[in-house]
C-alpha cells in the first residue's frame, strides 16, 4: 500500500474535533487536579495527624494503581456502588482530576517543604499568623519551584487522556482509531495523531517556559 | 513588672530535658548576654520567649502575657519581641526595603507608603539606605544581618532577641553587626543576646548568664564574671571562647 499524505486534510476536521475533546478533558482535569493536589499537598505538609493520613492514603491509592483501572472503576464500578451513573466524558475528567491530583499533591508538598524553615520562623517571629506566612512568604517561593515539575505532570496527564479510549470517549486517539477502522491508512493517520499531540504538548512546554522566564526561580 | 519572667520554666524534646525549671526575670533596659556550651539550652531559652519553642513546664510571661496562651496572645508577644537569627532568614524574593516594610504592613496594618518611608529610615539607621533596593542575595552577610535587624525593629518591639547573630559571619563582617547592636543598646533597647562575642558581652552587656545542662549556673555583671569566674566550668568555657 502506498503512503498518501493527501488523505490527511480530508480527516482534519474529524481529528480536530478529537483534539478539542482531548484539550477539554486535559484542561478541566488539570484545573481540578491542581486544586485537589494543592489541598492534598498542604494537608500532607501542614495538616495534623488525621488530615495527613487522609491525604497519604489518597495519594498511595492513586499512585499504586494504573489510571486505566481508575477510570474503569469510576465508569463501571462507581454506578454499581453508589447508583450514580456518569457519562464517559465526566468519568474521563474525574479520572484526570483524581489521578493528577495525587501526583501534584506530592509536587506541592515537596515544593513547600523545600523552603527553608528559617523563613517561616522569621515570619512567625514578627507576629504573623501561620496562614499569612504561607500566603505571603512560603507560598510565593514554593510556587516558583512548583512550575517545572508541575509542567511535567501537565504533559503526562495530557497524554494520559489517550487511555480513555477504553471507555469510549471520542478524544484524539479514539478518533484516530475510528478513522483507521474505515480506511486502514495506519501510517498517515497515526502520524497525524502523533503530530497533533506534539503540537499540544509543545504549546504547553512553550507556555511553561514563558512563565519560568518571567519569574526568577529562587 | 519585669518584661520577661521565667517561672520554673521547662522544655523537653521527647525525653530530653533542654530547660530544667529555669527562674529568670529580665527588666526593661537590660542587655542580657547568654553564653554556654552547645546543648546547654541557651538558644532554646531564647526561642521560648517568643514561642518558637513551646514550653512544656512552668510558665513564661512576656510583657504581661503568658506564652501558654497561644494564638492571638502569642502573636501579640511576638510583635513585642523582635528576633534576629543566625542565618539572617531574609525573604529572598523581596528587596531590603520590602523586607523591612513587610512586618509593619502585614502585622501592624500600615499603608505601603508609610511602611516604606519608615523602612527607609531604619535602613538608614543600620547604614544601608543606599542598598534599599537590592535583594538579599546581592548583599554581604553583614549587610543581610543589618537588614534583618532593621526588619525586626520595624515592628516596633519592646525587646530584641538575638540568636547567635554573628556566628555565620566572617570576622571582618561581625564588627558592622556588633556596631549596630551596640548602638541599639545605647538607645536603651532591652536585649537578650545568645553569642560567643565576649568583647560585646563585656562592653555592652549589663548582665551575663552562663548556662549548663538546661540550668542557669552563673548570673552576674559581665565584667566581674569574666574577670573573676565564680565556677571552674565557666573559667574553662571562657578560655575556650577567647
Automatic annotation (TrEMBL), chain A:
Q: Which CDD domains match?
A: TM_PBP2
One annotated GO biological process? amino acid transport
Ranges annotated as spanning the membrane: 20-43, 55-77, 89-108, 189-211
Which Gene3D superfamilies did the record assign? MetI-like (1.10.3720.10)
Per UniProt, residues of the ABC transmembrane type-1 domain are: 19-208
Per the record, GO CC terms? ATP-binding cassette (ABC) transporter complex
Q: How does it sit in the membrane?
A: Multi-pass membrane protein
Q: Which domain of life is it from?
A: Bacteria
The record's InterPro entries line, in alphabetical order, gives: AA_ABC_transptr_permease_3TM, ArtM/GltK/GlnP/TcyL/YhdX-like, MetI-like, MetI-like_sf
Which Gene Ontology MF annotations are present? Answer: transmembrane transporter activity
Spell out the subcellular localization from the entry: Cell inner membrane; Cell membrane
The alphabetized UniProt keywords are: Amino-acid transport, Cell membrane, Membrane, Transmembrane, Transmembrane helix, Transport
* Function recorded in the entry: Part of the binding-protein-dependent transport system for glutamine; probably responsible for the translocation of the substrate across the membrane.
The record's comment on protein family reads:
Belongs to the binding-protein-dependent transport system permease family. HisMQ subfamily.
Please give the PANTHER family that the UniProt record associates with this protein.
Answer: GLUTAMINE TRANSPORT SYSTEM PERMEASE PROTEIN GLNP, MEMBRANE COMPONENT OF AMINO ACID ABC TRANSPORTER
NCBIfam families reported for this sequence: HEQRo_perm_3TM (TIGR01726), PRK09494.1 (NF007028)
What is the protein name stated in its UniProt record? Glutamine transport system permease protein
Source organism lineage? Bacteria, Pseudomonadati, Pseudomonadota, Alphaproteobacteria, Rhodobacterales
From TrEMBL, chain B:
ABC transporter domain segment(s): 4-238
Which is one GO molecular function term here? ATP binding
What family is reported?
A: Belongs to the ABC transporter superfamily.
Q: Which PANTHER family match?
A: AMINO ACID IMPORT ATP-BINDING PROTEIN, GLUTAMINE TRANSPORT ATP-BINDING PROTEIN GLNQ
> What is the name listed in the Swiss-Prot or TrEMBL entry for this protein?
Glutamine transport system ATP-binding protein
Q: Which residues constitute the signal peptide according to the record?
A: none
Q: Which domain of life is it from?
A: Bacteria
- The answer to keyword Oxidoreductase applying to this record is no
UniProt keyword Heme present? no
Amino acid at each position: 500500500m502506498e503512503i498518501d499524505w493527501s488523505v490527511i486534510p480530508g480527516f482534519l476536521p474529524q481529528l480536530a474535533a478529537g483534539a478539542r475533546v482531548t484539550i477539554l478533558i486535559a484542561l478541566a482535569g488539570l484545573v481540578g487536579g491542581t486544586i485537589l493536589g494543592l489541598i492534598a499537598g498542604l494537608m500532607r505538609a501542614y495538616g495534623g495527624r488525621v488530615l495527613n493520613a487522609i491525604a497519604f492514603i489518597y495519594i498511595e491509592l492513586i499512585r499504586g494503581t494504573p489510571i486505566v483501572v481508575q477510570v474503569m472503576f469510576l465508569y463501571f464500578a462507581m454506578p454499581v456502588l453508589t447508583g450514580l451513573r456518569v457519562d464517559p466524558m465526566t468519568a474521563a475528567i474525574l479520572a484526570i482530576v483524581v489521578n493528577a491530583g495525587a501526583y501534584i499533591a506530592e509536587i506541592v508538598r515537596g515544593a513547600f517543604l523545600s523552603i527553608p524553615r528559617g523563613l517561616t520562623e522569621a515570619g512567625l517571629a514578627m507576629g504573623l499568623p501561620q496562614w499569612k506566612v504561607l500566603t505571603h512568604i512560603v507560598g510565593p517561593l514554593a510556587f516558583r519551584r512548583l512550575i517545572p515539575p508541575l509542567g511535567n505532570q501537565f504533559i503526562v496527564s495530557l497524554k494520559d487522556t489517550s487511555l480513555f479510549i477504553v471507555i469510549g470517549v471520542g478524544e484524539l486517539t479514539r478518533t484516530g482509531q475510528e478513522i483507521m477502522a474505515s480506511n486502514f491508512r495506519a501510517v498517515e493517520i497515526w502520524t497525524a495523531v502523533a503530530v497533533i499531540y506534539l503540537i499540544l504538548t509543545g504549546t504547553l512546554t512553550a507556555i511553561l517556559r514563558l512563565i519560568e522566564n518571567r519569574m526568577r526561580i529562587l | 513588672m519585669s518584661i520577661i519572667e521565667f517561672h520554673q520554666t521547662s522544655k523537653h524534646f521527647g525525653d530530653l530535658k533542654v530547660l530544667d525549671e529555669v527562674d529568670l526575670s529580665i527588666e526593661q533596659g537590660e542587655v542580657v548576654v547568654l553564653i554556654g556550651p552547645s546543648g546547654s539550652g541557651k538558644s532554646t531559652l531564647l526561642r521560648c520567649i517568643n514561642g518558637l519553642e513551646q514550653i512544656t513546664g512552668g510558665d513564661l510571661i512576656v510583657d504581661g502575657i503568658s506564652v501558654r496562651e497561644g494564638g492571638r496572645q502569642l502573636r501579640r508577644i511576638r510583635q513585642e519581641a523582635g528576633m534576629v537569627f543566625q542565618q539572617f532568614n531574609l525573604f529572598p524574593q523581596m528587596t531590603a526595603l520590602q523586607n523591612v516594610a513587610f512586618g509593619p504592613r502585614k502585622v501592624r496594618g500600615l499603608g505601603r507608603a508609610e511602611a516604606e518611608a519608615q523602612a527607609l529610615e531604619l535602613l538608614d539607621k543600620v547604614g544601608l539606605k543606599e542598598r534599599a533596593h537590592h535583594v538579599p542575595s546581592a548583599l554581604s552577610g553583614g549587610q543581610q544581618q543589618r537588614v534583618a535587624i532593621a526588619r525586626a525593629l520595624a515592628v516596633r518591639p519592646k525587646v530584641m532577641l538575638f540568636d547567635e547573630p554573628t556566628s555565620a559571619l566572617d570576622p571582618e563582617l561581625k564588627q558592622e553587626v556588633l556596631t549596630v547592636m551596640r548602638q541599639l543598646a545605647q538607645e536603651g533597647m532591652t536585649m537578650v543576646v545568645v553569642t560567643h562575642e565576649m568583647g560585646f558581652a563585656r562592653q555592652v552587656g549589663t548582665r551575663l548568664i552562663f548556662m549548663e545542662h538546661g540550668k542557669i549556673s552563673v548570673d552576674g555583671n559581665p565584667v566581674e564574671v569574666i574577670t573573676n569566674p565564680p565556677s571552674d566550668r565557666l573559667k574553662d568555657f571562657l578560655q575556650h571562647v577567647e
